[in-house]
Design brief:
Layout (H helix, E strand, L loop, with lengths): L12 H8 L12 H9 L13
The structure holds zinc ion (2 copies).
Organism: Streptomyces triticagri
Protein name: PRL2-8
């Protein structure tokens, strides 16, 4: 079970949190405006991947 409060590298914290914490969208019909914005425009701040090759 993924932890909604610890975003893995390469994932968007906002999308990750909203995707795995059901309470965020509770009472909403579908996704919240932030999620819709990320779906349409992409995620502006993903967690950077820690690459071994750097
Ligand atoms: Zn959302
Ligand atoms: Zn996102």
């Amino acid at each position: 079970m993924p932890d909604p409060h610890s975003t893995p590298p390469g994932e968007c914290p906002q999308c990750w949190h909203h995707a795995h914490d059901r309470t965020v969208h509770k009472g909403m019909r579908g996704d919240c405006p932030q999620c819709v914005d990320h779906m349409l425009n992409g995620c502006p701040n993903r967690v950077p991947k820690r690459s071994r090759w750097w």
